[in-house]
């Protein structure tokens, strides 16, 4: 490594010395110093102090244009006035943060989602997207009374055993592309988790159909991200074919739109594709910056949760019969009024004339500007994504699934991302870019210019 590179690394590390110190302190009382493994990156994460609009400021006072946006949740940017006003108004009018009883915002948000998503007849709220996908799977298994589910290689649906399978498998262990192996992504998982989760090849309809038909008597549901990782879209022919096959076989089709629900368009990927899944899991943007999840779907499925179908298992001495049991779903904070107020304010703002179209325009402006810079320097690069999410792929080869992503130049991408952190452009190294309504034309130009500086630094090493 040359002297210029050493000086650059030393300069940046000195700029974030406060983050290093804060991380070391956190490690004493928090495993690895982070409250979620995804928040970590080497040599240590940058610890933030405050944020406003499109900007983050760390504990050392360094400012960054934020493209992580809490993994896409902050579509209006940080601290949007409409969201803050809705939250303050809810707390003032209701006089409490939470009731533990039904309240009017539950109906109001549920009706909003039913109006936006034609696939939804009814809605239940959870506290995270993970909980929403977990509930979707339980519901599908209760409906079809079959022991297994199928998910796609490279798709992430939350950090629980049933779906923490073949999210980022080593290719040596992943099996044949047309019939992938089930690979555990965490210690502490049992063999039954792998046996009960069948892995499918994304964007390969022939192979997917063959697996589903061969194992149709075992599979209750297929769950997928219609846009893998938020940026690798399903081929239109693939997703329409998948809908036809699952209909034919009586398998419940679950869309995990936690990332995409309000980011491709207000109605999510299913609106763009013209597909109605049986169940849809939502999260992230839905909470306006607060923890939230929701599951919506067809009446025949959703009604299995109705408490009118059976007794309350948490009431002692209920004496309910096995035949009376409803599918159990509960949670003290489900449908939290403060969270729903923030989420409604967010959705209503996105629905205003010109808001989403302007956000999509700015996303395309950034993507085009970045591609122009990289191509000017002769670097193989493309931006891949739909709507307001994309990722930078250092390859000109078509990317359609997880295995294609293993062939791209991840190391150079990460080197550029570390340079960008020093230049005040924030996303976790290697992660996708999410846009917000708070990003300005100046932010976009500064980001494009920073990429050019970062490229020059690498080329001059």
Automatic annotation (TrEMBL):
Key words, A-Z: Isomerase, Pyridoxal phosphate
Q: Does the keyword Metal-binding apply?
A: no
The record's listing under InterPro entries reads: Aminotrans_3, PyrdxlP-dep_Trfase, PyrdxlP-dep_Trfase_major, PyrdxlP-dep_Trfase_small
Documented EC number(s): 5.4.3.8
CDD domains reported in the protein's UniProt record: OAT_like
Would you identify the family this protein belongs to, as annotated?
Answer: Belongs to the class-III pyridoxal-phosphate-dependent aminotransferase family.
Name of the protein: Glutamate-1-semialdehyde 2,1-aminomutase
Organism annotation: Alkalibacillus salilacus
